[in-house]
Amino acid sequence: GGVWASSAKPHAHRTLVNGTFKGPSVNMQWGAVQVTIVVKKSKIINVKATAPKHTSRSALINSVALPLLKKEVLKAQSAKISTISGATLTSGAYIASLKGALKVAHL
């Protein structure tokens, strides 16, 4: 039992969100970043992102930054995440795209 066995009915207008929602492609100095979120029962269960990998530096930054950003999003369940040091531009574009995806999903 406990907290989860509450008999309170959820608000009728608040339907649970399910699906995959794509944020806008956000351009930054090194190229575009686009975030896609996968939502199940209004909870973000996965985050995918495309980011520039055309230079070895971009590829390195993104191979480190993207998994960290994903972890932050899954933990925060929102766009209120910290930018990754050393990947400030990527983080900024990622958060902007993420906000767009959240808006589309009404989260």
Describe the structure.
- The chain has 107 residues and is α+β, with helices and mostly antiparallel strands.
- It is 36% helix and 23% strand.
- It is built from two helices and four strands; from the N terminus they run ββββαα.
- The chain has helices at residues 56-76, 88-104; strands at 19-22, 26-28, 31-40, 43-50.
- Strands 1, 2, 3 and 4 form a four-stranded antiparallel sheet that branches.
- β2 and β3 (31-40) form a beta hairpin.
- It is elongated, with a radius of gyration of 16 Å.
- The two termini are 28 Å apart.
- The mean pLDDT is 88.
Q: Hey, roughly how much beta strand do the residues contain? A: 15-25%
The overall average pLDDT, rounded, is: 88
- The beta-strand count equals 4
Radius of gyration: 16 Å
Shape descriptor reads elongated
State the separation between the terminal residues, measured CA to CA: 28 Å
Tally the helices: 2
By secondary-structure content and strand pairing, the structural class works out as: alpha+beta
**Unreliable spans:** none
Helical content (DSSP H or I, runs of 4+) = 25-40%
Order of helices and strands: EEEEHH
Largest sheet: 4 strands, antiparallel
